[in-house]
């Protein structure tokens, strides 16, 4: 079995991130006991879940002698912002292929928030029209750079590869260790999922430790029948990369796609309510695109009776605060 030290990574995140109770939100909902894993506090240009992935992705880029990293995302992509920050920290060039899905939306969305920070962090932003095949666009741009005698490293959407998912394998172990120290018996770990890497790492980490703690991914965009096989394949890839004998079964990968709304990036009424409650009751900010929709999903499951009032449920806060400033926000 490969030890964690045998898998190349660079230190970018402030770890371990806290595991904190949300007593007022828990009381408002009548239980369960909600705990938040504060990966919004992971550091690196306002933090977020992608920092853990980038510790492994950027190490792999360095091993391959890359002189530039390229990746893709939507206009308010937290992944792109954090990739730009990681590249800046490590002194490597960065290009971001940004798909502008809503070019007619107000200026705070089309130029502010994460996109403003992308520029501030020194990344080169290449605009893509809505609906462009971003995988192909990345491949085409990588080939152009190679023709210019550059050595690009392509980071997939969301940093979701087996290498990127390694970051959330260690996060799962971190959660289990903190829960043990706090005397918690975790009923479920809940988080936002979209490209699958975060969920894959969590599922793999739980399997490695044989914890039995289930992981619920609440989709911010992709349908479950598409996303679940992606997560399972990535999780199995992590297991194989570590070199242990485990099988990621279908029932270990649970994706709830009932809270997406119209489409990725478009707010929902339930998201507004959930984000507003967390802000007013706990002073905790969730973004409207990703973590906010997952929080709305958690609230819906609590109201539907998924948990007993005494259960301990961990919600992984995946960050995304800059996106709040790109949306006209309401709480009623």
Question: What characteristics describe this protein?
Answer:
alpha/beta, 2 domains, 11 helices, Rossmann fold, 10 strands, 332 residues, four-stranded parallel sheet, six-stranded mixed sheet
Give average pLDDT, whole number: 95
**Mind telling me the CATH class of the largest domain?**
Alpha Beta
CATH topology of the largest domain: Rossmann fold
Order of helices and strands: EHEHEHEHHEHEHEHEHEHHE
| Unreliable residue runs | none
Basic shape: globular
Number of domains: 2
Query: What is the strand arrangement across the widest sheet?
Result: 1-2-10-7-8-9
End-to-end distance: 52 Å
Beta percentage is: 15-25%
Largest sheet: 6 strands, mixed
Q: How many beta strands in the DSSP annotation? A: 10
Which architecture of the largest domain does the CATH hierarchy give at level 2? 3-Layer(aba) Sandwich
The percent range for helix content is: 40-55%
Q: Number of helical segments?
A: 11
Specify the structural class. Answer: alpha/beta
Roughly how many Å is the radius of gyration? 19 Å
Plain-language structure description:
- The protein has eleven helices and ten strands.
- It is of the alpha/beta class.
- The protein has two domains: 4-48 and 161-326, 3-Layer(aba) Sandwich (Rossmann fold), CATH 3.40.50.1100; 50-159, Rossmann fold (3-Layer(aba) Sandwich).
- Strands 1-2-10-7-8-9 form a six-stranded mixed beta sheet, with helices on both faces. A four-stranded parallel beta sheet has the order 5-4-3-6.
- Helix 8 links the parallel strand 7 and strand 8.
- The radius of gyration is 19 Å and the shape is globular.
């Amino acid at each position: 079995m490969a030890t964690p030290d045998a898998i190349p990574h660079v230190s970018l995140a402030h770890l371990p991130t806290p595991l904190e109770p949300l007593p007022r939100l828990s009381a408002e909902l009548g239980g369960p006991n909600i705990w938040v894993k504060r990966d919004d506090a992971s550091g690196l240009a306002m933090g977020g879940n992608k920092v853990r992935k980038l510790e492994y992705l950027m190490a792999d880029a360095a091993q391959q002698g890359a002189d530039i990293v390229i990746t893709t995302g939507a206009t308010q992509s937290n992944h792109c912002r954090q990739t730009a920050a990681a590249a800046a920290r490590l002194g490597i060039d960065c290009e971001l292929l940004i798909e502008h899905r809503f070019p007619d939306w107000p200026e705070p969305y089309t130029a502010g928030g994460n996109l403003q920070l992308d520029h501030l962090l020194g990344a080169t932003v290449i605009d893509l029209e809505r609906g462009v095949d971003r995988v192909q666009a990345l491949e085409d741009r990588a080939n152009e750079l190679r023709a210019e005698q550059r050595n690009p490293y392509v980071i997939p959407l969301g940093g979701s590869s087996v290498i990127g998912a390694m970051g959330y394998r260690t996060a799962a172990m971190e959660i289990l260790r903190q829960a043990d120290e706090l005397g918690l018996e975790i009923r479920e770990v809940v988080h936002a999922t979209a490209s699958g890497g975060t969920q894959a790492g969590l599922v793999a980490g739980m399997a490695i430790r044989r914890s039995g703690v289930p992981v619920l991914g609440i989709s911010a965009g992709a349908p479950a029948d598409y996303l679940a096989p992606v997560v399972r394949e990535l999780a199995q890839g992590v297991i194989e990369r570590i070199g242990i004998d485990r099988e990621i079964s279908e029932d270990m990968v649970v994706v709830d796609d009932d809270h997406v709304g119209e489409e990725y990036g478009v707010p929902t009424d339930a998201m507004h309510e959930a984000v507003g409650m967390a802000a007013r009751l706990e002073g905790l900010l969730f973004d409207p695109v990703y973590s906010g929709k997952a929080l709305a999903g958690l609230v819906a499951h609590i109201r539907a009776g998924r948990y007993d009032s005494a259960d301990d449920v961990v919600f992984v806060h995946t960050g995304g605060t800059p996106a709040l400033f790109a949306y006209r926000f309401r709480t009623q």
